[in-house]
């Protein structure tokens, strides 16, 4: 994984090359090159896609619901085994 400082330095270097050309780039060309630049920078980071993140959130929510159900069942069984003494 690329450290944040190195990533920012790399982005700055590439961005300065885009801006410092002899002739200004047309907007579409600039956007295309900037997109490639960002994709290159993001590929060096340890990131997950939105789809992968969303699917893991579903798994986490399902697991959390099952855990809560199990905790409730354990509490119910413990209450049956150890009735409160008054």
Write the layout of secondary structure elements.
Blueprint: H1 4-19, H2 27-43, H3 50-81
Helix pairs in contact: 1-2
Explain this structure:
The protein is mainly alpha-helical and 86 residues long. The protein folds into 2 domains: 1-47; 48-86. The protein has 3 helices and no strands. It has helices at residues 4-19, 27-43, 50-81. The protein is rod-shaped and about 85 Å long. The model has no long low-confidence stretch (mean pLDDT 82).
Task: Briefly say what this structure is.
The protein is mostly helical. It is 76% helix and 0% strand.
So what's the overall shape? Answer: rod-shaped
Helix fraction, binned, reads: over 70%
Order of SSEs: HHH
What share of residues are in beta strands?
under 5%
Alpha-carbon distance between the two ends: 60 Å
Low-confidence runs: none
Helix count equals: 3
Mean pLDDT: 82
Main pleated sheet: none
Number of strands: 0
Instruction: Please tell me how large the radius of gyration is.
Output: 26 Å
Summed up, the domain count is 2
Q: Give me the secondary-structure category.
A: mainly alpha
Task: List the defining traits of the structure above.
2 domains; 3 helices; 76% helix; mainly alpha; 86 residues; single chain; Ubiquinone biosynthesis accessory factor UbiK; ubiquinone biosynthesis
């Amino acid at each position: 994984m690329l450290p944040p400082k190195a990533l920012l330095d790399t982005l700055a270097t590439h961005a300065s090359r885009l801006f410092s050309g002899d002739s200004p780039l047309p907007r579409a060309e600039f956007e295309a090159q900037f997109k490639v630049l960002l994709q290159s920078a993001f590929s060096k980071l340890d990131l997950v896609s939105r789809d992968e993140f969303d699917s893991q959130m579903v798994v986490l929510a399902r697991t959390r619901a099952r855990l809560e159900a199990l905790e409730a069942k354990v509490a119910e069984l413990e209450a049956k085994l150890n009735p409160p003494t008054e």
